[in-house]
Amino acid sequence: MLGNNSALPTFVGLSSAVPRQAFDQETLWDNVFDQWYAEIPDARDIGTLTRVRKRHMAWNPALDVGHKTRGIGERMKAFAGIVEEVAGEAVEDLLDATRSKDIGSIVMASSSGYYGPTPDYFLAKRFGFKPNVRRTFIGHMGCFAAFNVIKTAIDSVVTRPDEYTIGVCAEFSSLHFRPEASREQAIVHNLFGDAVGAFTMAMREPGHGPQILATHTHQSYETSDMMTLSILDDGIRMTLSPYVPFVIASLINEFVEDLCAAASVDPAKIKHWAIHPGGPKIVDLVAQKLNISDRQLEATWHVLSEYGNCASATVLLVLDHLIKHDRPQAGELGIMLAFGPGLTLEGALLRF
Q1: For residues 318 and 275, is the Cβ–Cβ distance under 8 A?
Q2: N or C: which end of the chain has fewer CB within 10 A?
Q3: How many other C-beta atoms lie within 10 A of the C-beta of residue 337?
């Protein structure tokens, strides 16, 4: 394990922001989903099974989608209209404690929209980042993309330890809701919400925020068809096999062992868990395999209930909630986990 006084890549700031519109599950069913899924037996029960209570959405499915077919161009235009507004709120919160001129890099991920120059360009312009700020935009990697942002930020601050890097995950899945009457799409549309998660990273010694001790990745190449994202004429369509939770559960123990081994940490020493709530079955099975208590899952269940699965932004929301409400003690260890298309497992080992 690295020395307790080592300067390491550190989350020195975390923030989040959401669209102003919020909808509870009952309202969504009364206004739109009852009509979309009228031919699916027991479809309304899906809203309860997801354990999602409320979600924030850039689009109101009843008004902005309804029974119409909205083209991909309309959806991308809507993305351009919302992403800079909501991501800007999150970045502005980070800059309350960090000067714009100290930002050396900005890294951004989204799987729900594209245009160029990419949104990170306009965020850099808005907040007066240096003209030579390094920008990276990561697209279409799905729910685990926060870790691609994190690892790019790690590379940046390790290489240039006198600078800060800002990471942003901005997802607006509501812009791709489609009235496709299938049980699979009913699950997707009852699970996903919109949010931005953001962080500031810098090289710091203990005491300035969660330090990253190690990261780990595992691609399960034989399961590439179990979770997919496809761009159609009328939006981005996600597929989600019911076998996904069982595959993740079968891999998770070895994954966590490998992650901890990278920093010579005993997995039994992990006290805090920030798990991406890809769905309740995933969380339940992972918790069962790793012997994680209900108390340790409070942040994960809270974010799922109050925001839904917000794709790449979600694990950052979970970490932020965990820090604010669990108040980890100095030196305690934690793990962040997320899962996405591939199937791909991503993790980070933290020292608080």
Answers
A1: yes
A2: N
A3: 28
Same domain, 156 and 180: yes
Question: Which is catalytic among the residues 143, 169, 260, 310?
Answer: 143
pLDDT at residue 163, as a whole number: 96
Residue 179 sits in a domain of what CATH number? 3.40.47.10
pTM of the shown model: 0.96
SS3 114: coil
Alpha helices in the chain (DSSP H): 25-28, 34-36, 45-49, 72-95, 119-126, 145-159, 183-189, 244-261, 280-290, 298-307, 314-326
Cβ neighbours of 71 (radius 10 Å): 13
The one-letter code for the residue type at 222 is E
Tell me, yes or no, whether 2 lies in a domain: no
Q: Which two tokens stand for residue 103?
A: 């930002």
Count how many domains the chain has.
2
Nearest alpha-carbon partner for 283 in 50, 81, 75, 111? 50
- Assess whether 263 and 149 both reside in one domain: no
Of the candidates 173, 199, 138, 133, the residue with the CA atom closest to the CA atom of residue 348: 199
**Angle at the Cα of 337 (from 335 to 338), degrees rounded to 5?**
165
- Residue 54 CB neighbours (<10 A): 15
For the record, the structure tokens of 136 come out as: 């990276």
> In degrees rounded to 5, what are phi and psi of residue 258?
-65, -40
Question: Which residue reads 């001129």 in tokens?
Answer: 101
pLDDT digits (tens, 9 = 90+) for 1-56: 555 778 999 999 999 999 999 999 999 999 999 999 999 988 888 878 899 999 99
Instruction: Work out the angle at residue 216's Cα, subtended by the Cα atoms of residues 142 and 314, and round it to the nearest 5 degrees.
Output: 35
8 A C-beta contact, residue 199 and residue 13: yes
Pairing of strands 8-17, 54-56: unpaired
- Tell me if residue 169 is catalytic: no
Question: Is 190 exposed, middle or buried (CB count within 10 Å of its CB: 0-12, 13-18, 19+)?
Answer: buried
